[in-house]
Amino acid sequence: MVEQAAEAIVAAAVRGLFLPGDRLVEAEIARDLGISRVPVREALRLLESQGIVASTPYKGMRLMQVSNAGVASLMRLRLALESLAVQEALRASGGAERFARMSLAAEVYAQACRLGDPAPIVLADEDFHAELCRASGNAPLLALWQSLARQLAVIWGLAQQGGPRAAAEEEHRTLVAAMEAGQEAVALATLDLHINWHRQINFEQVVAERRLRPAGL
Which domains does the chain have, with CATH numbers? Predict the structure, then answer.
């Protein structure tokens, strides 16, 4: 139940129901989810340990702040991790079937985009990149990526406010095809392009504009 509460809080952030810096009130979340406050309290502590929630004296729990500089730093770390995942996955033994789960995740992402709800889109994107890291066979690398995943989800949710990025579907497929063909340079170039989309978005402006809209719209 704690994990489900944590997922629900992240999903609400992805949908724009919570914005960066918003206070997360334990009693209100518990009421909305129809559960007791205990698992919500534990979920908030879990999210705090993952950098999604910040606790400050006299201000309570608040959703992580998002700045352009902070996004850039997180994306540099993400690019380093996933580039290493590509390299290690391609150097591992086995054929193209090693990337079957990535290919399936790419199609699940494409299907989620057709539905238009940002939460499943972000979850599917998260799953795709987790499969990339899993394909590396490097368990510590995967664990480190997963520790960042929910921070990435909040950022991806902000980027989804105008709808899913059209190029992402094709970039997923191109990345899988390059890895299946053993084309490391193509895979790394595609990954770099795919991750650095954030440079086109002013996240601080997105948050400011989102605050002017009614909740849930």
Answer: 2-65 (1.10.10.10), 69-200 (1.20.120.530)
Let me know: does 52 contact 64? Beta carbons within 8 Å: yes
Give pLDDT tens digits for 87-97: 999 999 888 88
Kindly give the residue spans of alpha helices, DSSP state H, lying in 23-117.
Answer: 26-33, 37-49, 68-91, 100-115
Q: What is the per-residue burial (b if ≥16 Cβ within 10 Å, else e) of 75-110?
A: beebbebbbebbeebbeeeeeeebbebbbebbebbb
Length of the chain: 217
Angle, CA 50 vertex, CA 45 and CA 52 arms, to 5° = 80
d(CA 119, CA 16): 10
Torsional sign, CA 88, 108, 151, 70: positive
pTM over 0.90: no
